[in-house]
Amino acid sequence: MSPHRRVISLAALTGSLLLLASCGSGSSVAGEGPSANDAACDAAAHPEASSTFPVEIDHALGTTTIEQAPERVASIGWGNQDVALALGIAPVGSDDQTWSMTGDEGLGLYDWTLDAYDELCAPEPTVFETADGVDFEAIADAQPEVILAGYSGLTADEYETLSKIAPTVAYPEIPWYTPWREAIEIDSAALGLAAEGDELVADLDQRIAEATADIDSFEGKTAAFFYVTPSDLSVISIYATGDARTAFLGDLGFDFPQLALNVSEKGEFYTDIAAENADIIDDVDVMVLYGDDQVLAEMQDDPLWSTVPAVQNGAVVAVGSGDAFSGSVTPTALSIPWMLDDYVALLDDAASHVE
Prior knowledge:
12 strands
């Protein structure tokens, strides 16, 4: 499994340990009623579509026509449910969004998503198990009228099967390669809420601008996202600039190192870097990676990776493994405001170490 799939799968779907942990657990069942205080909740009004139906959405796997404003929405892949929720629609079903390197997490959704269900006074959705790929049976049982998969890794066969359940909207061009703005754009269009999607993007851009307004440490510095296995430092991986995690570093004001740019130009998600070629990332000022503070210590103890300036300087941000924060750094419509200030603070601290 590629590092991208390894991390995206963990972040968006499952990892090998989580696969084992999830097997046999089945998809969770949707709640029967509002999860928030009923007395405090008015029935959430389904937003009125601003687009005229039918709408046609072109995507990498074809053209999908949605005949009328969908009332029952399902999402698969990563973060698509957050687009609907941010626009006032609570999906009836969603892929598992939690991930855990230790395999001790069950199916579920992250805090920012659950908060949105509460705010909409909506019952929590059925959470589709992803251990064995797309859970067609559970998705069909949810009786969706549209399936959002703007950020996903659907295959053509999976798309064909899902399209028999409900109109399905896949990723714009490349599987698992949809930055958050494009995910909002294609998912909101499928809901007939394209104009509202544009407003949502503008709002998030404003939040990012405000969060970084007083930060000058990012200017002129490069940053990239890496996958590192501390127990095997013979190879690490760097993600391309088009990957959602790396792209978000650019949104915050960083430049990109040459290797990340080169990987993107080749249309790839990532590339491996052998330890003996560590100097190829000497132009990376700030490294972001999964793990804890021990990861930096391990790299500083390594005779090869310790020669990289970012490692020498301690300009490394470890975002955790398998927790909500490490999940949030793959940005979505709802995870961005949830993690933004904390993430900027960590990056600011790391950038202050650059020499």
